[in-house]
């Protein structure tokens, strides 16, 4: 079942706590120190910088790793970010880094560096911006009268996102609160997404305390590569799980057959 959330991309804009570190007229001011956002979204990190009179800045760049004392690799030249990074500057010495199609491997600390046209005219600002990229998970809490589904992430999402819950293909809740409660037993399918993210929602299938939560519903990858699919499951008290396996549904017999 294909579902689309409102909008196509979530861009995280932050204008909060500024960090200023200066040395003899050199400084970098970061708009924020930490960002938590979702896999597949777009993020912007901003800073401004100053330098002494008489200098002219010739190079500006963002980096996530320092390879050696004098060799900082710009994200524009890093193959891991190819086609996903843009820089934007303004006349007031402001500079913005944009990364699209975020991956969990993009979680890192990013710093801004600029180079001037004179000897010793090189500076980068610390501590930088710490980016955490997470994926949606669903936690299931069951009591004898209700089941609560909660959209969960490994860090607290920045910018107070709106969580969308679907019952089958119908939106049943849009709220900044990440949980949705069901008071009657049902065989319906439930999907959780964050508004503005054009990515697969999390699927939960529930029946009498039984549920399976898949981390994602669709994956596109290359022939010959490796892939990981993950899920979590719940079951009623009193049962003991003796067997778990994955299967495909397009086998010739039409019956579940373990992939092992």
Verbal overview:
The chain has no helices and 22 strands. β14 and β15 form a beta hairpin. The strands form 5 sheets. Strands 1, 2, 3, 5, 9 and 10 form a 6-stranded mixed β-sheet that branches. Strands 17-16-19-20-21-22 form a 6-stranded antiparallel β-sheet, with no helix packed on it. Strands 4, 6, 11, 12 and 13 form a 5-stranded mixed β-sheet that branches. The chain starts with 10 loop residues before the first strand and ends in a 26-residue tail after the last strand. With 260 residues, the chain is mainly beta. It folds into 2 domains: 123 residues, Immunoglobulin-like (Sandwich); 100 residues, Immunoglobulin-like. The radius of gyration is 23 Å and the shape is elongated.
Mean pLDDT: 78
End-to-end distance: 27 Å
Morphology: elongated
CATH topology of the largest domain: Immunoglobulin-like
Annotated CATH architecture of the largest domain: Sandwich
Summarize the amount of helix as a percent range: under 10%
Q: Given the helix and strand composition, which structural class is it?
A: mainly beta
Gyration radius, in Å? 23 Å
Q: What is the N-to-C succession of helices and strands?
A: EEEEEEEEEEEEEEEEEEEEEE
Q: How many DSSP-defined strands?
A: 22
**Beta-strand residue percentage:** 35-45%
Structure annotation, total helices: 0
């Amino acid at each position: 079942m294909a579902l689309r959330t409102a909008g196509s991309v979530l861009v995280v804009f932050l204008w909060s706590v500024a960090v200023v570190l200066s040395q003899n007229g050199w400084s970098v001011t970061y708009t924020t120190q930490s960002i938590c956002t979702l896999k597949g979204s777009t993020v912007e990190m901003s800073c401004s910088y100053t330098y002494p009179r008489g200098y002219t800045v010739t190079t500006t760049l963002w980096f996530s790793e320092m390879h050696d004392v004098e060799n900082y690799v710009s994200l524009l030249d890093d193959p891991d970010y190819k086609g996903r990074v843009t820089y934007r500057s303004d006349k007031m010495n402001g500079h913005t880094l944009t990364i699209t199609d975020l991956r969990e491997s993009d979680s890192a600390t990013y710093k801004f560096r600029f180079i001037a046209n004179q000897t010793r005219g090189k500076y980068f600002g610390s501590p930088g911006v710490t980016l955490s990229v997470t994926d949606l998970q669903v936690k299931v809490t069951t009591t004898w009268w209700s089941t609560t589904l909660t959209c969960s992430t490994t860090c607290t999402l920045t910018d107070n996102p709106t969580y969308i819950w679907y019952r089958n293909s119908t939106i049943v809740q849009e709220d900044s609160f990440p949980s949705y409660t069901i008071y009657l037993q049902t065989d319906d399918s439930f999907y959780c997404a964050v508004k503005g993210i054009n990515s697969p929602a999390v699927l939960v299938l529930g029946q009498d305390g039984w549920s399976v939560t898949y981390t994602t519903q669709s994956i596109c990858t290359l022939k010959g590569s490796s892939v990981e699919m993950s899920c979590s499951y719940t079951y009623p008290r009193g049962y003991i799980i003796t067997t778990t396996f994955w299967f495909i549904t397009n086998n010739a017999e039409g019956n579940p057959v373990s992939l092992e």
